[in-house]
Amino acid sequence: MTRALNKLTAAQVKNATPGKYSDGGGLWLHRREDGGAQWFLRVTVHGRRREMGLGSLTYVSLKEAREQADKWRRLARAGKDPIKERERERRLAAREDHTLASIAEEAFEARKAELKGDGKAGRWFSPLELHVLPKIGRVPIEEIDQRDIKNTLAPIWHTKADTARKAMNRLGIVMRHAAAMGLDVDIQATEKAKALLGKSRHKSKHVPALPWQDVPAFYATLDEGSVTHLALRLLILTAARSSEIRFIRLSEIEGDTWVIPAERMKAAKEHRVPLSGEAQDIIERAKPFERDGFLFPSIRKGVISDATMSRLMERRGMEARPHGFRSSFRTWCAEATEVPREVAETALAHVVGGSVERAYRRTDYLDQRRALMEQWAEHVTRVSHTIVIAGLSKNAE
Fold first, then answer.
1. Can you give the residue ranges of the Tyr recombinase domain (predicted)?
2. Which residues contact 49 (CB under 8 A, 6 or more apart)?
3. Which domains does the chain have, with CATH numbers?
């Protein structure tokens, strides 16, 4: 019986000419015309013949081929398909490489081109990195279900609703990425987790804003000529986001227009900001502080932080924050001007209208916005403002 199973010798295998040679029990060696050789095994499972490769002779010796053949023949006798079983074993072995953390990194890399600045700021990945991966990052993604996700996000679902929503959104993207890779994942797991978590009890709060009537009095106190004061003045005059102001470069100023590149915009689209006479004066006054092309550098390196401007207002006992001046401007547009909605929204770099409407409306209303920003500057710089705001005097800082 042993001889029937082990027909070949090492010498015969080494010196075999092109053709097929049986070692017995379904194990064959196929020597090709090009000199290469391959082991394969033939077994019968449920009346159906199956043929599976066992590897190249270059890497698999006669002894190793017989050991593999014994293993797969035993499975075939037990009624199991050796080819399917091998695939199952490979998937199990590969699971260590298919953890949630590794697939999340792959998904992030795949999406970088769609993200502002290639996602270098970390805002896309941070909800996962801070609240998900520390808990289930090492779990094979194919094993993750709605209960895992629910238990992971439950602690922040009602207290940090926006962060939890972003983390859930990113998880959904990662699960779909894994499915595209051919992994056996439940792409509905995040939706099921939402059902288990229920509606968030968290009530969103708007960023506190200074009433537009009170902006001139605050603006007048920013008269020290420091980087922080000048940055806040330009932020108010342009109704821009704080990140757009903080990272402004002199190279982006083209005469009386500030052109913000797409990679620095929230909507990932270039935005032109008309500069009023007052805004241009602020830029001239800030030029002596310029470093590495940045108009508002920090004391040490890089640019001033968002906290720098916020803390100035906080020290003065104000609830309002820098981002709130965008709301101040928009409310002023609605209550004190007759500017069309589309012009006001474009001034804030908001997307206006549906995709079809935008396809036909190919204007950014630059001329109309230029007049609007001059009007806003006139309001902001009024010196005859009579409203007295507690805590807004220069001595309050």
1. 205-373
2. 42, 43
3. 2-82 (3.30.160.390), 99-197 (1.10.150.130), 212-396 (1.10.443.10)
